[in-house]
Amino acid sequence: MTKRIAQLLVGLVLYGAGCAIMVRAEIGLDPWTVFAQGLSQQTGIGIGWITNIVGFLVLLLWIPLRQRPGVGTLANILLVGTSMQATLAVVPPVHGVGVPGFALQLAVFVGGMLLLAIASGLYIGADFGPGPRDGLMTGLNARLGWPIWAARLGVEASVLLAGWLLGGTIGLGTVIFAAGIGPLVHRTLPLFDRRLRATGTPATARTNTSSSETAAHPV
Fold first, then answer.
1. For residue range 168-218, what is the model confidence (pLDDT) as tens digits?
2. Cα-based torsion angle of the residue sequence 48, 50, 56, 59 in order, rounded to the nearest 10 degrees
3. What gap in Å lies between CA 133 and CA 120, rounded to an integer?
4. Residue 114 and residue 53: Cα distance in Å, rounded?
5. What is the dihedral of CA 218, 36, 82, 59, to 10 degrees?
6. Which long-range contacts (CB under 8 A, 24 or more apart) does 53-57 make?
7. What would you report as the CA-atom Rg of the chain, rounded to the nearest whole angstrom?
8. C-alpha distance across the termini of the chain, in Å
9. CA atoms within 13 A on the CB side of 125
10. Residue 15 near residue 119, CB atoms below 8 Å
11. pTM here?
């Protein structure tokens, strides 16, 4: 249990750090972070704190969907945005001119996404419950019968549009994240999933199941 808790906490802290690094790359973000960034620009509240607040509000939507949060769900709400805000305080924006500058921004973004994928493997593999946003998707599936892909597409398209209208950053990074995070988590989850090691479940079976739990944002 101690190792699982440590894995959860490390995973959530690294997840927030990965999100912050992608923000600093300034070439686009995942849908939920675009939404948080847009709200941050409109309210003046730090994007990390907005991430925590949005996570709590999304958790309230679990009530009519009859979802039950786990320890990991609550820790997600408290730690991801806090870690994100702390990382933003020490990591400066990445600016560049011309092709070399853009290449640096791209490298920083990919580095952040890789860190986020490792973090996702850690916190999902600890098996303490889904993040608030992932639970919303599975709740819509269980309660309303929506396919997971339809629930995710509908919700994330909505928050992406809202975030963009509020001033959030959409760009190449948004496309890279959408195309790359699923395959990356598919690789990292078997490395950290304690249930796989305990039961001997084939990695493909577990990672295919967990793909519906990852926004990855996931969280």
1. 999 999 999 999 988 998 898 888 886 655 555 544 444 444 443 444 444
2. -100
3. 13
4. 25
5. -60
6. 53/81, 55/80, 55/81, 55/131, 55/132, 55/133, 55/219, 56/132
7. 16
8. 21
9. 27
10. yes
11. 0.85
CA distances from 49 to 25, 91, 124, 159, 171 (A): 19, 17, 22, 17, 23
Measured in degrees and rounded to the nearest 5, phi and psi for residue 160 equal -65, -45
Side chain identity at 3, as an amino acid letter? Answer: K
Q: Tell me: the pLDDT tens digits for 98-138?
A: 778 899 999 999 999 999 999 999 988 888 887 888 888 88
Looking at residue 219, what DSSP letter applies? Answer: -
Give whole-number Cα distances, 128 to 4, 98, 101, 196, in Å: 8, 45, 40, 15
Which residue in this structure is represented by tokens 């939507």? 61
Residue located via tokens 């992608």:
22
Q: How far from 50 is each of 92, 94, 162, 176, 189, CA to CA, in Å?
A: 19, 22, 14, 24, 27
